[in-house]
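To: structure desk
From: M.T.
Subject: fold request, one chain
Message: Could you run this one when you get a chance? Sequence is below, nothing fancy, just the single chain.
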Amino acid sequence: QVQLVESGGGLVQAGGSLRLSCAHSGRTFSSTTMGWFRQAPDKEREFVAQISWSGGSTSYGDSVKGRFTISRDNAKNTVYLQMNSLKPEDTAVYYCAGSPYPSSTYDYWGQGTQVTVSS
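Reply: Done. Structure tokens follow.
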């Protein structure tokens, strides 16, 4: 059973930066597409970013393009989300998720880490 554990959340002022990490416990990380999602209170879950198994392909939600960067280290079984120029509207619980080959869906999820951006 794969487990994903997020870390790095916290409280930051608007304009600041945070880096989230997500550790994958299994042996299939290097063949797994990884993604970050977020959910703010009373809002639907929102796609943030995705990275292919090799790291060669990334995509971002419109609200974070140019500010957030997703990356991965397959040797460390870890995916990262670098968040810069944070805004109060980025406040949410951030979740990482994995889509293992050959699945086309995100089959497992972490517990989430809270990010709060103060104005």
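Reply (cont.): The two ends are 40 Å apart (CA to CA). Let me know if you need anything else for the meeting.
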